[in-house]
Hints:
Blueprint: H1 24-30, E1 34-43, E2 49-58, H2 66-74, E3 80-82, E4 87-88, E5 91-99, E6 105-122, E7 127-145, E8 148-163, E9 171-186
Antiparallel strand pairs: 1-2, 2-5, 3-6, 4-6, 5-6, 6-7, 7-8, 8-9
Amino acid sequence: MYNDTRDCDMLRTNIVLPQSHYDEYTRDTVIAVNGVGIYGNVPLGNAGIVTYLAIAGIMNPDAESGFHKWGNNHLLLANAEIAGTVDFDTTPFGSMQWYPPIPGLIISGHVVGTRNKTPLRFASGLETRLPGYGLLWSTGLEYTWNNLVVAMEGHNVNGTGSVLRVDNPASKTDWTVTTWYYGAAKMSFNF
């Protein structure tokens, strides 16, 4: 819900956004997609208005990107590191926000799909490319009444691919991570 206003902390309920939803490590990669997109607004008459954004493109994280730092932090227990460029297929992104005819209410949904091959180097010298697929979706709700803002977001990531395990370094698995956060804030302006 807050990627568009991420750098304007006074426009949301909490100053520090939950890292389960807004990971600073991966931000530079996700916002730097090379591709095409469409966006717009659809008036729904008495049902309010919907804004939408659809993007298809390729992410190209370099070795100094936050994505690589994030990946290498997660690979510490496997005694491995990302060894080169992660190859991403075309990645679709989608986002919708519905502004129903209830003043102050916003309902949102987002989806991202990724398919990649990650080059890894283990401390033993073994090098491999691990394929993976991930589908991220999130939903959010924000309600503003007078000076009170209440917000919640759910975030779900489903993945299929190779994971690193001590007993089998390149085993295939399916995995899911689900997180939620809730927040409320009373805004006051004293000028």
